[in-house]
Design goal:
By secondary structure, this protein is α+β, with helices and mostly antiparallel strands. It contains eleven helices and 14 strands.
Length: 264
Amino acid sequence: MYRFKHHRPTTIDEAQSIFAACDDPSYLSGGMTLIPTMKQRLASPTDLIDLSQVEGLTGITFHSGLVRIGAFTRHAVVANSAEVAKAIPALAYLAAQIGDNQVRNRGTLGGSVANSDPAADYPAAVVGLGATIVTSQRQIAGDTFFQDLFETALEPGELITAIEFPIPEKAVYRKFPNPASRYAVAGVMVARFPRGVRVGVTGAGPCAFRATALENALNQSFNPDALNAVEIPDAGFNSDLHASAEYRAHLVKVLAKRAVQALC
């Protein structure tokens, strides 16, 4: 690990001021990706801005048909929240499937979403539930937030402060986990709202996305057999030692059918 300066601000304004004054800074949330990357010397920020003492970034609240979760809220808190389990059971279930106990007790919602790892679980919920990313400067629709591999719509220095998840009529998350890391080789969130069905996919491509072909089929007929005729093209999908692009495309369809079966 290369040498760096450590900062521990107590407010969002202070954190952003430090960020603006540094040469190559990075915010530190749970550190589940950043710290291992720094240990391997694949990342070398000049300054780490630790967000653990910043006020107002944790907690879960409910209002106007939304579940609002602070960006620094740990995965374990979401997984074990009786209120989240009642409002959006699929979200609590998703959080419980992330990594292991150590990861869930350290990793944070905002850190996971800001990192935009292609195999992370939360992005499927952000897209599948049509969430809104609340930042220190604005609000960003979940549909436009994830842009590419580890790339998001966040501007330099911009901080996620909370994420608002609309409460669906029903939702289910299903994933095919890597047996070692528990990352999603592919993961699918199917959510049913009065205005229609949403399907969020993670693990398959460079970033999370909506599977509109699956949505269209399910809006016509909400049952697993409605997906039989849907083709999932694998162009642009991830292909690595864990799974080929073709296999991931197959998994997306299989997992979507399992989710719909569970909802039915």
